[in-house]
Amino acid sequence: MAGDTVQQIKDRLSIVDVVSQYVKLERAGASLRARCPFHAERTPSFHVSPDRGTYHCFGCNVGGDIFSFVEAIEGLDFKGALKVLAEKAGVELVYERGGKEKTDERARLFELMEVATIFYTSRLTDAAKKYLKERGMSDATVQEFRLGLAGDSWSEASEYLKAKKFTDKEILDAGLAKKNERGNLTDKFRNRIIFPIADSAGRVVGFSGRIFPVKPAATGQAAKTDGGFEPPKYMNSPETPLFHKSRILYGFDRAKQSIRKNNCAVLVEGQMDLLASHQAGWGNTVAVSGTAFTSEHAALIHRMTDNLVIALDADEAGIKAAGRAARAALQGGLNVKVAQLPTDLDPADLILKEGAEAWKKAIRNAKDIIAFLLDVLEEHMKAPDSFRRSVEQVVLPFLSDVQSPIAREQYLHEIAARLGVSEAAVAETLAKVPTASRVAMDDSVRDQDKAKPSFAQGFGRARQAFSILLWQQSLQKPSIDVAAYARELEEAVGAEAFASLTTLSESEREALRFSAERLYGKSAAPLREAKVLLHVILRELLAAELDEATYALKKAENLGNEEEVIRLMGVCKLLTTRIGQIHERV
Asked: Zinc finger spans (CHC2-type) (predicted)?
């Protein structure tokens, strides 16, 4: 890849351009600040410097440039972040053959997955297209989401990939095949419509395959293989170096812009549901892929929005899954609503049978999770005692997961009104509900605090003065003579202490720059403030020396050592004079 590609991207995209797409920035002196997207906080401690093109959070001690930011917030490696930012900047990526690119294992796997996607899409038969059309999928949707077909051959995909110079190990590592008893590769996906699953950068990392019915769809029966074995309706790629189902949401790469725009994400259960929802105009829809909705999924969504609408199947299994997803989402700080669907209809069927307007109505009428649970229980539990017990057992654990104190207070009020009891009684009962998830989160935060570098814990005056030097050095037009200030700082703190300050890592230095910018960025006279700080440091050092000399003088007087008393009296007088001179200068 061209060596100047990274610089081209940085020249076209500022740190503000990138970060502001994920968090709301506000001016704070020479920098901008926001609530950190990487940890929960109420007071903004995340700062962005437009001049240096960097960011730093004083709460969780993370920082870097636009590439490290996109890596962290999108859950990507450097090449994934490079792809995302290149698209934003309009810079074309040109990969060179040979060297590191050729030997990079992850790059090879990404290339393999792309070749496999092209292979499957090229084999989508007329029969498969007809089936997808019967399920309401348009040709444009099929092409946009790159749907394909795995046929009934035992090793067609594997042989094709090997012909493209991929090794058996790479095909196995990608999760597209397994070895049979004879040691030969057999395809993972057979007789299935293939749905490529992409990461945040749009790179294919895995596949989901829906059994393609050989029998007429009206029978409701899936095809059976030899021996009468009935394969699962859906099959997903196994865990691979690229595909981690607890971190990947199907369609997220296409939905994230719409999620930001609408300030809301819609969660459905399957690929067909997602395609139907996108086709019906809800481009902010995402789906889980062969796993339950996890805290990592919640964190992924939370980077784009605070709001989630859960629209899973209306059967018993779907309702239970919605409950589990809601708790994970609440624990992740999301505001959660639930869309009620007609019984026995999933989102895809609802859209197909009743139209996009019915789906729109279901989303628009979604209820807050607590209100949804209360309504369901009240409908099924007619006896007051049964309703009360159900609220204690079912609803209060959800309420314990709500992160917003204001929202919790509102829900307390609603629950108390529904039960006909005081809010104090509900609050007392809530206090007894186990909150292991929040305890774990608190422990994690404490562990992060313990792990912070020492410079963030013991931010003394010397480092504060050094931070001004680093900050001014980073400016194109410093407002102080940095060379002269550096000499004065070394004189004030001593050569040994100054030398130790110069050994700080770049991440520590950047944190100090942000600290100085935050403290002195609005100052009209940073030079005077820097000088005052140096004088304070020097005065404190001299005062400490005076204390030591005074103690030694008393000890010499007690011992009757007149020669030492005379010497120490001179030292104390000199130190007192120097301290007085500093007072006069300040």
From this structure: 36-60
Whether residue 96 has pLDDT greater than 70:
no
Sign of the Cα torsion 258, 259, 265, 270 reads positive
Q: Which stretches does DSSP call E strand in 199-327?
A: 204-211, 234-236, 265-268, 285-287, 307-310
Lowest mean pLDDT among 118-127, 159-168, 266-275, 555-564: 555-564
DSSP tag of 339: P
- ∠ CA 148-294-196 to the nearest 5 degrees? 10
DSSP 137-188: --HHHHHHTT-EEE-S-SSHHHHHHHHTT--HHHHHHTTSEEE-TTS-EEES
State the Cα torsion 98-104-105-109 to the nearest 10°: -70
- Dump the DSSP string for 544-576: HHHHHHHHHHHHHHHHT-HHHHHHHHHHHHHHH
State the pTM of this model.
Answer: 0.67
The DSSP letter of residue 228 is G
The shares of helix, strand and coil residues in the chain, as percent rounded to the nearest 5, are 55, 10, 35
Q: What angle do CA 235, 281, 304 make, to 5 degrees?
A: 75
Q: Which residues fall within 8 angstroms of residue 522, CB to CB, at 6 or more apart? A: 29, 30
Sign of the alpha-carbon torsion through 396, 400, 405, 407:
negative
**DSSP, res 127:** H
What 3-state class would DSSP assign to 257?
helix
Q: Which two tokens stand for residue 173?
A: 């590592």
Q: Are 111 and 232 in contact (CB under 8 A)?
A: no
Tell me the pLDDT tens digit for each residue of 162-207. 999 999 999 999 999 999 888 899 999 999 999 999 998 889 999 9
Pairing, β 265-268 against β 307-310:
parallel
Measure the CA–CA gap between 529 and 523, rounded to whole angstroms.
Answer: 8
DSSP 3-state of 48: strand
